[in-house]
Design goal:
This protein is α/β, with parallel strands linked by helices. Helix content is 25%, strand content 38%. A hairpin with a 2-residue loop joins strand 1 and strand 2.
Amino acid sequence: MYSVYFNNRRLTVCSNTEQIIKDPQAVLYKPASESELIDVPQIFDQTPNILSMYIASEKEEETFSKMFTNLTHINAGGGLVTNSKGEFLIIFRHGKWDLPKGTQEPGEMISCSAVREVEEECGIDQVELRGHICDTFHTYHRNNLFWLKKTSWYRM
């Protein structure tokens, strides 16, 4: 299953139809063609009253890749940082509370990007990488482009 967040709304490619049935806010969309599949992110982005949309597909990864062909892709790394007291490190950025993260540099391993970005954004050093948590996807608009950002999250 692949989920992409459009602010507080979610577009999901899923082979498990039971998952779709369990979501009371779900809209199931069946594109008639590959070209229509490529238009799904724009359609969903421009339909703010739909909170959750599912695309049913047995070939989740292939469908996900095709669906986001026309978006500009970017990778980021970030961290769920805790101190010895178990407190979490959060930052206030762009008017919202968030976990520290940032863009992967060319040739840089994503785990190194995550540590570097946390240290730079938070003014800390000697961050200890403790393992990969998950990858998330979200979209945004900037500089007249529609972006798909994949963020790899790590325990730190």
